[in-house]
Amino acid sequence: MSSTKKISLRDNQEGLVAIIVTMLIMIILSLIVLGFAQLTRREQRQSLDRQLSTQAFYAAESGVNDAVKALSDNPGLLTASIPPGCDGFKSAAGLTGQLDGTNVVYTCLIVDAVPSSLEFDSVDTNDSTSFPVASNNGSVLSSITVSWQAKAYSSTFDCAGLPSNLHPQGAPACPTGMLRLDIVPTNTLNRSALMQKNKTLFLAPSSGGSTTVAYDTAVSGDKITVTCNDGATPKACQATITLPTGAGSSSEYYMHVRSIYAASAMTVSANDSAGNPAALKGVQILVDSTGRASDVLRRVQIRVPIDASIHPGFAIQSTDTICKRLKINPGAAVHDLVGVPGSDGGFPDQAPCKVNWP
User: Which residues neighbour 153 within 8 Å (Cβ) at sequence distance 6 or greater?
Assistant: First the structure.
């Protein structure tokens, strides 16, 4: 007689644990694969964005170069009536903005020949910077604002422990430079007017001082302590020179600037007689260019000098030795001065100057 053994489903659970473990492993592996795929897509997108950003930047620079070339070929564009907007200058100059037939273009090109401020990245200690501050519409200027800070920016403005007059040149305790500022009104260029109205001011940085200088009452050669604040705009140190606005006042001043102790970055702006920012002509052109590559945009702004000539800070400037002849009185001997003074502090006769006298 045979017997049958009944096996219930509850008792037949062999392999169930293996199935669950396998499913968990598959889920974990799927999540890992999806994570790596997302990272890969992100890296690809970032790499593409970097490439497009570089292309857009070069497109913006191409717009700047095209604008400078157009102005060089046709200076009349500086005074032409150009419609405002991104396409006004491009249309007037015959530019399309399209680069090599691709989706890389400069979409916006704005040229301002009379900006409301002048920017100088480096006012050096060896060379002077000379430029006019002239109202574009001929209106009288009521003030000129000079803002500056050290080219290698420092938040230290006081020169502790140094004399109250002009500090020793190259003093390490003065990281922010002082500005020597010569201002000449150009409405009356004769000897008498130049003697009376020409002013030389020394603007000294400080954490506490003045922010306003009256041009009429300032004494030429004065050292003026100017207030500087860390983080102030456009530059840390700022002095506003108030100008005469009555009879005989000027719409144009010529400025000659030199930095003492340390090179400076400087911004210059001016207000008209109504107190509004004046558009300044004849110094710089502001070129604003926006490049686009696919859906990525880059914007570039530069200042192009109109007058690129160099103005020395001396009556005579030479890279070679200058020979000078000195005679104290009619009966004295003539001394040829070549190079530096003698060790005794005097000027002994040296090699004769090779000069053909008329």
Answer: 236
Question: 3-state class of 223 per DSSP?
Answer: strand
Tens digits of residue pLDDT in 257-312 = 999 888 899 999 999 988 899 999 989 999 999 999 888 899 999 998 886 454 55
Answer yes or no: are the C-beta atoms of 283 and 132 closer than 8 Å: yes
Q: In terms of pTM, does the model score above 0.90?
A: no
Structure tokens at 313: 């800070």
Inter-CA distances, 140 with 16, 135, 145, 270, Å:
95, 7, 15, 10
> In this structure, are strands 237-242 and 264-272 parallel, antiparallel, or unpaired?
unpaired
Does residue 143 contact residue 137 with C-beta atoms inside 8 Å?
no
SS3 label, residue 145:
strand
Beta bridge partners of 328: none
* pLDDT tens per residue across span 205-237: 888 777 888 888 888 888 888 989 988 889 999
Q: Determine the Cα–Cα distance for residues 43 and 37; give it in Å rounded to an integer.
A: 10
